[in-house]
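Input/output pair, single chain:
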Amino acid sequence: MTSDAIDVRGGDADLGAAIAGQSGAETRIRFVPDGPSDLARALGLTAGVPAGEPVTIDAIRLDSGLVAVNMVVSGLPPDRRRQWVRPRRCVVEVDGRATWDGPATTVLVANGEYLRGHDVVPRGHPGDRRLEVHVHALGGRQRRQMRSRLVTGIHLPHPDIRTAQGSTVTIGWDRPVPLEVDGVGRTPTRAVTARLMPGAAVLVH
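Output:
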Protein backbone atom coordinates (compact mmCIF):
# COMPACT_ATOMS: atom_id res chain seq x y z
CA MET A 1 0.00 0.00 0.00
CA THR A 2 1.28 3.46 -0.93
CA SER A 3 1.66 5.62 2.18
CA ASP A 4 1.87 9.03 0.45
CA ALA A 5 -1.50 8.66 -1.29
CA ILE A 6 -4.76 10.23 -0.17
CA ASP A 7 -7.85 8.05 0.28
CA VAL A 8 -11.04 8.69 -1.65
CA ARG A 9 -14.10 6.49 -1.29
CA GLY A 10 -17.21 7.34 -3.26
CA GLY A 11 -18.11 8.22 -6.81
CA ASP A 12 -16.68 10.25 -9.67
CA ALA A 13 -17.68 13.59 -8.12
CA ASP A 14 -15.84 12.68 -4.91
CA LEU A 15 -12.69 11.87 -6.88
CA GLY A 16 -12.97 15.14 -8.81
CA ALA A 17 -13.35 17.13 -5.59
CA ALA A 18 -10.23 15.47 -4.17
CA ILE A 19 -8.20 16.42 -7.25
CA ALA A 20 -9.55 19.99 -7.13
CA GLY A 21 -8.24 20.31 -3.58
CA GLN A 22 -4.66 19.44 -4.54
CA SER A 23 -2.12 21.91 -5.89
CA GLY A 24 0.11 19.70 -8.04
CA ALA A 25 -0.27 17.30 -10.95
CA GLU A 26 -0.25 13.50 -10.59
CA THR A 27 -1.78 13.49 -7.13
CA ARG A 28 -1.57 9.95 -5.77
CA ILE A 29 -4.99 8.68 -4.77
CA ARG A 30 -6.31 5.40 -3.43
CA PHE A 31 -9.73 5.48 -5.08
CA VAL A 32 -12.27 2.95 -3.86
CA PRO A 33 -15.50 3.22 -5.90
CA ASP A 34 -18.46 3.07 -3.55
CA GLY A 35 -21.41 2.34 -5.79
CA PRO A 36 -21.80 3.52 -9.40
CA SER A 37 -18.73 5.12 -10.96
CA ASP A 38 -18.53 5.66 -14.70
CA LEU A 39 -14.78 6.26 -14.44
CA ALA A 40 -14.33 2.95 -12.62
CA ARG A 41 -16.32 1.23 -15.35
CA ALA A 42 -14.08 2.68 -18.05
CA LEU A 43 -10.94 1.56 -16.19
CA GLY A 44 -12.27 -1.87 -15.26
CA LEU A 45 -12.26 -1.17 -11.52
CA THR A 46 -14.64 -3.05 -9.23
CA ALA A 47 -16.90 -1.25 -6.75
CA GLY A 48 -15.49 -1.51 -3.24
CA VAL A 49 -12.00 -2.48 -4.43
CA PRO A 50 -9.08 -0.02 -4.83
CA ALA A 51 -7.14 0.23 -8.08
CA GLY A 52 -4.51 -2.46 -8.67
CA GLU A 53 -1.59 -1.32 -10.83
CA PRO A 54 -1.10 2.48 -10.79
CA VAL A 55 -3.25 4.21 -13.41
CA THR A 56 -2.67 7.81 -14.50
CA ILE A 57 -5.84 9.70 -15.33
CA ASP A 58 -6.59 13.12 -16.77
CA ALA A 59 -9.34 15.43 -15.51
CA ILE A 60 -11.39 18.44 -16.62
CA ARG A 61 -11.20 21.80 -14.85
CA LEU A 62 -14.11 24.18 -15.31
CA ASP A 63 -13.89 27.96 -15.09
CA SER A 64 -15.99 27.70 -11.92
CA GLY A 65 -13.17 25.77 -10.22
CA LEU A 66 -14.99 22.44 -10.29
CA VAL A 67 -13.04 19.40 -11.48
CA ALA A 68 -14.58 16.45 -13.32
CA VAL A 69 -12.89 13.12 -13.88
CA ASN A 70 -15.46 11.66 -16.24
CA MET A 71 -17.87 13.98 -18.03
CA VAL A 72 -19.39 17.45 -18.16
CA VAL A 73 -22.86 17.77 -19.69
CA SER A 74 -23.99 21.25 -20.77
CA GLY A 75 -27.65 21.16 -21.72
CA LEU A 76 -29.91 18.16 -21.29
CA PRO A 77 -28.23 14.78 -20.58
CA PRO A 78 -28.61 12.54 -23.66
CA ASP A 79 -29.85 9.58 -21.60
CA ARG A 80 -32.65 11.71 -20.12
CA ARG A 81 -33.84 13.72 -23.11
CA ARG A 82 -37.43 13.63 -24.24
CA GLN A 83 -38.91 14.13 -27.69
CA TRP A 84 -40.40 17.53 -26.87
CA VAL A 85 -37.16 19.23 -25.78
CA ARG A 86 -36.58 22.50 -27.63
CA PRO A 87 -33.08 23.06 -29.07
CA ARG A 88 -31.30 26.31 -28.14
CA ARG A 89 -28.70 28.26 -30.09
CA CYS A 90 -25.24 27.18 -29.03
CA VAL A 91 -21.70 28.20 -29.99
CA VAL A 92 -18.82 25.78 -29.31
CA GLU A 93 -15.10 26.33 -29.81
CA VAL A 94 -12.42 23.69 -29.33
CA ASP A 95 -8.84 24.96 -28.98
CA GLY A 96 -9.96 28.25 -30.50
CA ARG A 97 -11.55 26.62 -33.55
CA ALA A 98 -15.24 27.09 -34.30
CA THR A 99 -16.85 23.66 -33.96
CA TRP A 100 -20.56 24.50 -33.80
CA ASP A 101 -22.85 27.51 -34.18
CA GLY A 102 -26.53 26.65 -34.31
CA PRO A 103 -29.39 24.96 -32.45
CA ALA A 104 -28.49 22.06 -30.14
CA THR A 105 -29.79 20.31 -27.05
CA THR A 106 -26.57 19.02 -25.50
CA VAL A 107 -22.82 19.46 -25.43
CA LEU A 108 -20.73 16.71 -23.86
CA VAL A 109 -17.14 17.32 -22.75
CA ALA A 110 -15.79 13.91 -21.89
CA ASN A 111 -12.67 12.54 -20.29
CA GLY A 112 -14.29 9.12 -19.90
CA GLU A 113 -16.65 6.97 -21.92
CA TYR A 114 -19.78 6.22 -19.92
CA LEU A 115 -22.68 8.24 -18.53
CA ARG A 116 -24.73 6.32 -15.98
CA GLY A 117 -23.53 3.16 -17.68
CA HIS A 118 -24.48 4.31 -21.19
CA ASP A 119 -21.64 4.22 -23.73
CA VAL A 120 -22.20 7.81 -24.88
CA VAL A 121 -18.59 8.57 -25.89
CA PRO A 122 -17.14 5.30 -27.24
CA ARG A 123 -13.74 6.88 -28.02
CA GLY A 124 -13.32 8.42 -24.59
CA HIS A 125 -10.49 7.23 -22.36
CA PRO A 126 -9.55 8.82 -19.02
CA GLY A 127 -5.81 8.77 -19.73
CA ASP A 128 -5.36 9.66 -23.41
CA ARG A 129 -4.66 13.37 -22.74
CA ARG A 130 -7.47 14.73 -24.85
CA LEU A 131 -11.07 15.77 -24.35
CA GLU A 132 -13.84 14.38 -26.52
CA VAL A 133 -16.53 16.90 -27.45
CA HIS A 134 -19.96 15.89 -28.77
CA VAL A 135 -22.62 18.40 -29.84
CA HIS A 136 -26.10 16.86 -30.14
CA ALA A 137 -28.49 18.56 -32.57
CA LEU A 138 -31.03 15.80 -33.14
CA GLY A 139 -34.69 16.24 -33.96
CA GLY A 140 -37.45 14.96 -31.68
CA ARG A 141 -38.00 11.59 -33.37
CA GLN A 142 -34.26 11.00 -33.61
CA ARG A 143 -33.82 11.62 -29.87
CA ARG A 144 -36.30 8.91 -28.99
CA GLN A 145 -34.52 6.42 -31.22
CA MET A 146 -31.11 7.54 -29.96
CA ARG A 147 -31.76 6.77 -26.30
CA SER A 148 -31.88 3.01 -26.91
CA ARG A 149 -28.64 3.12 -28.90
CA LEU A 150 -26.65 4.99 -26.23
CA VAL A 151 -26.36 1.87 -24.06
CA THR A 152 -23.96 0.11 -26.42
CA GLY A 153 -22.44 3.08 -28.26
CA ILE A 154 -23.99 2.31 -31.64
CA HIS A 155 -25.41 5.85 -31.97
CA LEU A 156 -22.23 7.01 -33.69
CA PRO A 157 -21.40 8.13 -36.30
CA HIS A 158 -24.49 10.33 -36.76
CA PRO A 159 -24.94 13.34 -39.07
CA ASP A 160 -26.54 15.38 -36.28
CA ILE A 161 -23.88 14.72 -33.65
CA ARG A 162 -20.79 16.87 -34.24
CA THR A 163 -17.61 15.47 -32.67
CA ALA A 164 -14.24 17.07 -31.97
CA GLN A 165 -11.16 16.58 -29.80
CA GLY A 166 -8.96 19.05 -27.99
CA SER A 167 -7.78 20.43 -24.68
CA THR A 168 -9.81 23.64 -24.21
CA VAL A 169 -13.54 23.88 -24.85
CA THR A 170 -15.75 26.97 -24.64
CA ILE A 171 -19.54 26.66 -24.76
CA GLY A 172 -22.03 29.51 -25.03
CA TRP A 173 -25.83 29.30 -25.08
CA ASP A 174 -28.49 31.92 -25.75
CA ARG A 175 -29.98 31.26 -22.30
CA PRO A 176 -29.02 29.33 -19.14
CA VAL A 177 -29.21 25.56 -19.58
CA PRO A 178 -28.70 22.67 -17.13
CA LEU A 179 -25.15 21.74 -16.16
CA GLU A 180 -24.09 18.33 -14.90
CA VAL A 181 -20.58 17.57 -13.63
CA ASP A 182 -19.75 13.90 -13.05
CA GLY A 183 -23.43 13.11 -12.65
CA VAL A 184 -24.15 15.92 -10.18
CA GLY A 185 -26.50 18.70 -11.22
CA ARG A 186 -25.11 22.22 -10.87
CA THR A 187 -26.51 25.73 -11.32
CA PRO A 188 -27.76 26.28 -14.89
CA THR A 189 -25.46 28.53 -16.88
CA ARG A 190 -25.10 30.10 -20.31
CA ALA A 191 -21.33 29.76 -20.58
CA VAL A 192 -18.84 27.01 -19.74
CA THR A 193 -15.10 26.79 -20.26
CA ALA A 194 -13.48 23.40 -19.75
CA ARG A 195 -9.75 22.68 -19.81
CA LEU A 196 -7.87 19.40 -19.86
CA MET A 197 -5.78 18.57 -16.79
CA PRO A 198 -3.30 16.05 -18.22
CA GLY A 199 -1.99 13.52 -15.72
CA ALA A 200 -4.12 15.01 -12.97
CA ALA A 201 -3.93 11.97 -10.68
CA VAL A 202 -2.40 8.55 -10.27
CA LEU A 203 -4.74 5.91 -8.88
CA VAL A 204 -2.77 3.52 -6.67
CA HIS A 205 -3.42 0.60 -4.36
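Residues 71-195 form a domain with the Tumour Suppressor Smad4 fold (CATH 2.60.200.40). The CA atoms of residues 172 and 191 lie 5 Å apart.
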